[in-house]
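so ive been stuck on this for like two days lol. basically i have the seq below and the ligand is magnesium ion, smiles is in there too. i just want the complex predicted, nothing fancy, no docking runs or whatever. if the output looks off dont worry ill sanity check it later, just need somthing to start from for the group meeting slides
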Amino acid sequence: MIVAFDADDTLWHNEDKFQETHREFEALLAPWAEAAAVEEQLTSVQRTNLPRYGFGAKSFMLSMMETALDISDHEAPPETLREIIRLGQAILDRPTQLLEGVPEVLASLSNFTLMMITKGDLYAQLSSIEKSGLADHFWRIDVVAHKDAATYAEVLERHDVPIERFVMVGNSVKSDVLPVLELGGRSVHVPYHVTWTLETAEDDHGQEFPTLERLADLPELLESWS
Ligand SMILES: [Mg+2]
């Protein structure tokens, strides 16, 4: 069995820092608008920019800048824009903080072939992977721009992995679970305590898949499948 892991919010913390930055950004724009209005505009700007910039902190910085100009009707001073740059850089500079028990779980899965499939900004992701110290656990590591069925199919074909033997493990129903089920593979959902608005799966997807409370429960589940 080939077991692939998502990285952000599956192996290491990510969204918590973004959420914290949202709160700081709202406070920064408080002279011009209520927090809810700032959040609504930021989400709208990010949705529009996603196809342009892709995922990650650099894209987030650009969307915060644009939102600040929108919300303040171009009155936001250079100091505000400087502070937005600082907020984005603080996300990029944060050390990779592993989720609890991750190295132990990966070490206990040495009977399986492990992959990492993570999406986002290539440079930032490679940097996080290096800082994580986890790279040696994985047979293959792929950084992709999107996580849809076509992308998974391409990655599996490139590494000659049959879908029947493939299991994807991740925190996102939309990106890690549903596309792999669509291809006929298996997925395991391990939720993180917060999910980004644009990463939330909409509607009842009518699919069944195992959800684990902790990654530490994964080895037992995989043993039962093999
Ligand atoms: Mg994730």
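The chain has a mean pLDDT of 95. The first strand starts at residue 2 and ends at 5.
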